[in-house]
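ok trying this again, last paste got cut off
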Amino acid sequence: MIYKEFRISEEGSLDYAKLIVYIQEPSESLSISKRPLILLCPGGAYSYTSDREAEPLAFAFMAKGLNVAILRYSCAPAVFPTSLLELGRSILTIRENAKEWEVDENAIIIEGCSAGGHLAASYACMWKRDFVSKALLGNTEDSSKEKLRPNGLMLCYPVITSGKFAHRGSIENLLGDRYEYMKEDMSLENQVNSDVPKTFIWHTFTDGSVPVENSLLFATALKEKNINTELHIFPEGGHGLSLANKLTLSNGGNEDVPSAAPWIDLATTWLDRFF
């Protein structure tokens, strides 16, 4: 396995921001050469990045045959758009090394849990905006912007809205003292456009922290734009399930939910279908 760490430094980045890459080395004895890569954005209400949604997910996806990267993005007191630009820089870094790592450049999927889902979905909606390409590429030409394109989006119990069903703490941490006049811009059901890639979403009906309406609102917006979307709502389970099994139980937690655990197999089937 190729293991590498890259310091990610954009305006406002904190010292710990980094991209961690896990690449399965090609072998002449395998028919597989280029592999898709899934770029993980752990949750944590934009106040930290959860260990439970980082390496355990990375290793689970590697076992499914994928290359994986984890973005430990800057959280509060860092504010928007720092983490968004860090995600864009990570995609550029992956594409710059794709040939050496034998990563399929057309199969880079961004995944996010909870607030990490808000980050991933924000990027999926905003990657083509001029402020992103100017900061990361130094220009706003459409031909250059294609380097920033994500090929797929995977959302696990995501924070989406800043409205009635908001996880307000996440949006407050993301915006800091700009919360009141920027919160509507961070309501992603209103930011969906035709540049959002095909999307896989899952949530639990009984999530008491980030209501299931967050996923329903985003999926509805995707449908309105005719973006290929797969949505799974599991009947039980709280927030932050990660793998929803004993491997990602928190101390004293109740995240072992067998009815939701099949999500990763469903996600892998979705990936195999398109990538």
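PB: full thing came through this time. The CA atoms of residues 106 and 151 lie 6 Å apart.
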